[in-house]
Amino acid sequence: MLSISVPSVFKTPSRKEFSTNFLASTGFNFSNEIIIYYDNSNLITIDELYEILIIGKNTAYSLLKSEAIKSFKINHIWKIPRVSIDEYIMKQVKK
Q: What is the pTM of this model?
């Protein structure tokens, strides 16, 4: 029987490691101006929202339904302005 050890380079990152790496790769910082992403589109989808905030789908839907993050629907599909995410993060940081 052949036994192969997998180097740690190929190991799957933990959720915390992934979150930290994700934030670093998006340019997240807590300066006066928060820059989370380097994308020129003004609207994002629900899937992008929960990836950006590193939250679950249910939490993302709750934030939209409670109007904590300003958004709207087009043909039953949530559209979220990127500015709304920045505003939400700034409110949370100031708490």
A: 0.56
